[in-house]
Specification:
This protein is of the alpha/beta class. Helices cover 39% and strands 15% of the residues.
Length: 262
């Protein structure tokens, strides 16, 4: 069955944080993801998750100034100590909250550094993170983000993902929206590379809205994901201003029907 989770950093964003958990449960989600949970205490998050019987399956490691237009941490030469410190904070949250996967954002190319210097820094930080997370039985993922929305982003295509370190606990985080924006072939990407994918996310293209708001064939994509031996989660991470979950109803109906047949 398709394992769907709600990204609470983008979904239900019109609601205060505690109410987003309630809205996710009311919509039928059993799990959530949060981009950067660090503005809340572990105890707050534990309370909200427990109250609504939700599992937190993925968080991002701290990324410094990335979301404010900066270069971030993981691929920025000279910020290795800051990355390591952020990783320790992330490990604390992940352990206490039972998180299954931690995502690393490579960041943008730093002015004054060559691309190779940035990639060397990124590779070292990914090795560090993947090893530390493996000790806690937590998947480490690295995300490719399109260079139209984030100019200068270090990793944006499947070819670039394939050049990252070969570590048994390093997986790809694939967002179908970002891959479509980079004109990557989605169906073949899923078919050929699913063993390397540790987490999926989705939004429609081109507006990064809910499934059905753009041009992607989500009926086919969801069917393909369900048919794969892919065991992990698929996160709804799209621009949502009103909490419309109409796209979920057909999926719930299909899964209820499948359960009854079984």
């Amino acid at each position: 069955m398709l394992k769907l989770c709600a990204n609470l950093s983008m979904l239900f964003s019109h609601l205060p944080w505690p109410d987003r958990f309630a809205a996710a449960r009311a919509a039928g989600f059993a799990a959530v993801e949060i981009q950067f949970p660090y503005e809340h205490t572990v105890e707050q998050l534990q309370e909200w998750l427990s109250q609504h019987q939700l599992k937190l399956v993925l968080i991002n490691a701290p990324a410094g100034d990335l979301m404010q237009g900066g270069t971030g941490l993981a691929g920025t030469p000279g910020k290795e100590a800051e990355f390591a410190s952020g990783l320790q904070q992330c490990l604390h949250y992940a352990r206490q909250l039972g998180v299954e996967a931690v995502n690393i954002l490579p960041g943008r190319l730093t002015e004054g550094s060559s691309r190779q210097q940035a990639l060397d820094t990124l590779h070292g930080n990914l090795q560090l993170a993947a090893t530390a997370l493996a000790e806690q039985h937590i998947r480490c993922t690295v995300e490719a983000i399109n260079r139209h929305d984030m100019p200068g982003f270090l990793i944006s295509t499947v070819d670039e993902l394939q050049q990252l370190p070969d570590h048994p606990n390093l997986f790809w985080q694939i967002d179908l929206y970002h891959m479509a924006r980079m004109e990557q072939p989605l169906a073949s990407l899923l078919t050929e590379h699913w063993p390397r994918i540790g987490h999926l996310q989705f939004a429609d293209y081109p507006g990064r809205g809910a499934p059905g708001s753009g041009s992607l064939d989500f009926a086919s994509l969801f069917s393909q994901i369900k048919a794969l031996p892919y065991a992990f989660w698929s996160g709804a991470e799209y621009r949502d201003n009103n909490g419309d979950m109409g796209w979920l109803a057909p999926l719930h109906a299909q899964q209820v029907g499948a359960a009854l047949r079984d």
